[in-house]
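Protein in question filed below.

…
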Amino acid sequence: MDNHVYLVLEEKEEIGVSMKRIAMGYAMWCNHQYGRTGHHFENRYQSEPEQAL
């Protein structure tokens, strides 16, 4: 499969700390790239409840 990438890492700290660092870095990059603020999925669902007829 030439459309996949597998990455194996060895961490010196807990996996949660590493995943948080990766997620925060990605969110900061997206915010900078698209001129946004806040966390990555902020205001993702902006639907309003329907009014009954």
In short: The longest helix spans residues 15-34. The chain has one helix and no strands. The chain has a mean pLDDT of 80. The radius of gyration is 18 Å.
